[in-house]
Amino acid sequence: MPSSPIPIPSSHQPIHAAVSVSPPGGPLTQDRFRHNLLASPGKVRQPKVLHPIDNEDLRILLVENISQDAVKAFEANGWRVDHHTKALNEDDLVQRIGQYHAIGIRSKTKITERVIKAASKLLVIGCFCIGVNQVDLITAAKAGIPVFNSPFSNSRSVAELVISEIIALARQYFERAFELRQGIWNKQSKNCWEIRGKTLGIIGYGHIGSQLSVLAESFGMRVLFYDVINLMPLGSARQVESMSVLLSQSDFVTIHVPDLPDTRNMISGIQLAQMKKGSYLINNARGSVVDIPALIKAMQSGHIAGAALDVFPHEPGANGAPFDDQLNPWASELRALKNVILTPHIGGSTEEAQRMIGEEVSGALTRYLDFGSTVGAVNFPEVDLRAITAEQPDNIRICHVHVNQPGVLKQVNEVLSPYNVEKQYSDSKGDVAYLMADIADVSPQDITRLRELIIKTSSNILTRLLA
């Protein structure tokens, strides 16, 4: 039996949903089609501008110094934006979240079950980053809240950082630079290498891994990759059948996988022992995937010649906070190692990446709040409808999130039976289902009644009507 939905307080008000188009092709094709359609009003029928039945001002909370481009995009829609440069802890979020309809976070702010239960008006969550493990996705879905992220906008920035780390580890030049800043001249070539002709092993051949593959080949490297699914290689890269094969043949190993139960500590003592003596390990993925105490031992023994770590199991919540043994008990031991590059989770921290992430996630949130579209949501059924046109002034849009159980459509369609349902589309994901329907010839007097009847159905989680 599907689990019961989390009760949403009655102050949960309907907000904008709006129009969309659904051409053939993937999400990227659809996004480009929508952009071109709406940017060329003279060539198509004008979409009707939809408004929430309850005209409550939309408020958005952005934390962790999210791109100002996103702030401007939301403000251009007339929405109120509260922007904070730092992360908020759970207590702060619980205290503040009740007044917001949307929230944008990065990797340090945690949206827990407790936060979601306190979010009496929250409609959508935007993760302005790749990862979504900082959000309780299941609880959010059961509360009728889709979560959007940016799965590829910072791929190039991370790939370039990896290339720079490969060269820095091979040449040890960051140590030479540090010595010279201390007034020590230490010119040497021992154990310093060109990367041309070396083998790079990539664990996880997704957006970042595949881009990195192309960059590495341009430097004359041989590329192997391991992934849990069969993928088409780019260039001359070759997929290997197991991670142990990749580890044993690679001079440099770099990791690009999400934080999942199967990936936690996927590189530990056994895997490090399988790596070539004198090889290098790079982790710009998630802090949970490498057993750092085991890595410290492998480096102290000389088996691993160098490492670059941009992510850690526990990270400071703000700039200036200490990275010490109270945060991670092995921190001082790690910092004392030679030929280790330690960076503060800066893989996607470039102006270009943050601008593209801001555009991508703010666009997804806007499409949901204005259009009702959930295309690209990571925890939610992906549903979209084409536009209601300006020639259909008496049409309304219903956005109905409900428990995925038998009989729901029958109940809803009984409510809608007196009207002409011009478009209807529903889909489900786990315990949650989402229905969008456009209804014709609805009088203003009927709108409130329709909403009340649908909300009273036994499976209702969240219903918004837009007219």
Automatic annotation (TrEMBL):
GO terms for biological process: L-serine biosynthetic process. Residues 60-379 form the D-isomer specific 2-hydroxyacid dehydrogenase catalytic domain. The lineage of its organism: Eukaryota, Fungi, Dikarya, Basidiomycota, Agaricomycotina. Pathway: Amino-acid biosynthesis. One of its GO terms (molecular function) is phosphoglycerate dehydrogenase activity. It comes from the Eukaryota. This is Phosphoglycerate dehydrogenase. It comes from Russula ochroleuca. InterPro entries: ACT-like_dom_sf, D-2-hydroxyacid_DH, D-isomer_2_OHA_DH_cat_dom, D-isomer_DH_CS, D-isomer_DH_CS1, D-isomer_DH_NAD-bd, NAD(P)-bd_dom_sf. Pfam families: 2-Hacid_dh (PF00389), 2-Hacid_dh_C (PF02826). Keywords: Amino-acid biosynthesis, NAD, Oxidoreductase. Belongs to the D-isomer specific 2-hydroxyacid dehydrogenase family. CDD domains: PGDH_3. Residues 165-347 form the D-isomer specific 2-hydroxyacid dehydrogenase NAD-binding domain.
